[in-house]
Write a structure and sequence with these properties.
Number of strands: 6
Strand order of the largest sheet: 5-1-2-3-4-6
Radius of gyration: 21 Å
Helix content: 40-55%
Largest sheet: 6 strands, antiparallel
Strand content: 15-25%
Length: 235
């Protein structure tokens, strides 16, 4: 019996194919992020007065919500361990709420302090956390993006935020400030379900129109300009 020898393909060809696939993915991702922001979601019609204003504050790579510390907000979060004390701190006027990957989001310091392992876990899949903190009055010169909500919309929004929490006990981890708290959250973080995707999920859960998939800060900004900007809707 004659043995047939099959020559191996050069390893360089496999590496080249992998590099091409990776390049295509890198190029397609931002394009898909823009398309996802452009495609509008359905919304729930509401004739009530938009008495609640939720702000969006942008960091280098993601958005957080800033909620007014009114009765509805305090009631929604008061039963969380340590949250009631947080909201009663002197000077607290607003509640900051954010969601992100555990290893990446809980890293103290600047983004340069984030390890490569934490960044990789955030890209490929990591458990998630939700962050609470309090801030004082928001300076008007910041000109933050805002979301106007009726009582019904704000109630749905708060319900969606609370549904994000997993174990309601705060994590024993240092935060970005002396006052913030991290709680375990539901769902896993990855490159397709980012903190900005979560922001879009919460806005749509309130019944507001927004982009269907908003993985990048640009996606959130674009969706807000298209569907929630008062300057645009007034024109």
């Amino acid at each position: 019996m004659r043995l047939q020898i099959h020559p191996r393909r050069p390893q360089g060809r496999k590496l080249k194919r992998f590099a091409v696939c990776l390049l295509v993915l890198i190029l397609c991702y931002p394009c898909a992020a823009i398309v996802g922001a452009l495609v509008p979601s359905a919304h729930i019609a509401d004739d009530g007065r938009p008495d609640h204003q939720v702000l969006l504050i942008a960091g280098p790579i993601h958005y957080d919500f800033i909620l007014p510390l009114d009765d509805a907000t305090r009631t929604a979060f008061a039963d969380l361990p340590d949250a009631a004390l947080l909201m009663e701190l002197d000077g607290a006027q607003n509640l900051l709420v954010g969601w992100g990957a555990h290893d990446f989001y809980t890293t103290v310091g600047a983004y340069g302090d984030v390890t490569a392992q934490a960044a990789w876990r955030g890209l490929t899949g990591d458990r998630s956390v939700i962050r609470l903190d309090v801030v004082g009055a928001v300076p008007p010169e910041l000109e933050l993006r805002s979301l106007a909500m009726t009582d019904a919309q704000y109630a749905r929004f708060l319900t969606a935020l609370r549904a994000t929490f997993g174990d309601e006990r705060p994590l024993a981890t240092p935060g970005f400030t002396d006052t913030d708290l991290f709680y375990p959250a539901k769902g896993r973080f990855n490159g397709f379900r980012t903190c900005n995707v979560w922001v879009g999920d919460m806005i749509r859960a309130a019944g507001l129109r927004f982009g269907l998939w908003t993985p990048l800060p640009l996606s959130v900004s674009l969706s807000h300009w298209l569907y929630q900007s008062t300057d645009r809707t007034a024109n």
